[in-house]
What we know:
It is a single chain. The chain is mostly helical and 83 residues long. It contains two helices and no strands. The chain has a domain at 30-71. Helix 1 runs antiparallel to helix 2.
Amino acid sequence: MTDDVSASVPDVPxxxxxxxxxxxxxxxxxxxxxxxxxxxxxDADHLPADEHAAVYxxxxxxxxxxxxxLDAPPVPGPxxxxx
Length: 83
């Protein structure tokens, strides 16, 4: 009695497939700083999943800075505040 077990086992790749980009389209916002941070998200496409958090934290920090800058008072020009 010789059963050929290998004939019933599906082909399994020796190594898992690499990271595949999601192919998400990023629509430009018109704000250069924000657009640069959003483009940085593409870096995660080429990294293993356990390294995604560092990219997301960097992008999140940059977006927070951009939002905080919107609340900052304008810097007076050289000819303002004249008495």
